[in-house]
Amino acid sequence: MNSLQNSVQVIGNLGKDPEVKTTQTGKKCARFSVAAREVYTNAEGKRVENTNWVSLVAWDHHATIAEKYLHKGKQVAVCGKLTTR
């Protein structure tokens, strides 16, 4: 099985500090959003800027790292798996 079958990379700026909670079972969870900006020139030659907000969740050790190092406005690159709801 290829480990890259469900892989996603998001690069952008944090919208706010991560929201960190601990579950009843003691697992740490950090939720945060990243603004991934796309800039391109359309067919008419006009510059277009588009921002997509991506909601992310980090668990356990990664949540601890997010809590310590991630802050609003900071540019980040996040790799993980894509899960939709």
Word description of this protein:
With 85 residues, the protein is mainly beta. It is built from 1 helix and 5 strands. The mean pLDDT is 93.
Distance between the termini: 24 Å
Strand content: over 45%
Summarize the helix and strand pattern as letters. EEEEHE
User: Any low-confidence stretches, pLDDT <50, length ≥5?
Assistant: none
Give the helix tally.
Answer: 1
Helix/strand/pairing class, anyone? mainly beta
**Over all CA atoms, what is the radius of gyration?**
16 Å
What percent of the residues sit in helical stretches (DSSP H or I)? 10-25%
Largest sheet: 5 strands, antiparallel
Average per-residue pLDDT, rounded, comes to: 93
Strand tally is 5
Q: Which outline best applies?
A: elongated
Question: How do the strands and helices of this protein lay out in sequence?
Answer:
Elements: E1 8-14, E2 19-22, E3 28-41, E4 47-59, H1 60-69, E5 75-80
Antiparallel strand pairs: 1-3, 1-5, 2-3, 3-4
Task: Write a brief caption for the model.
By secondary structure, this protein is mainly beta. The chain contains one helix and five strands; from the N terminus they run E-E-E-E-H-E. 12% of the residues lie in helices and 52% in strands.
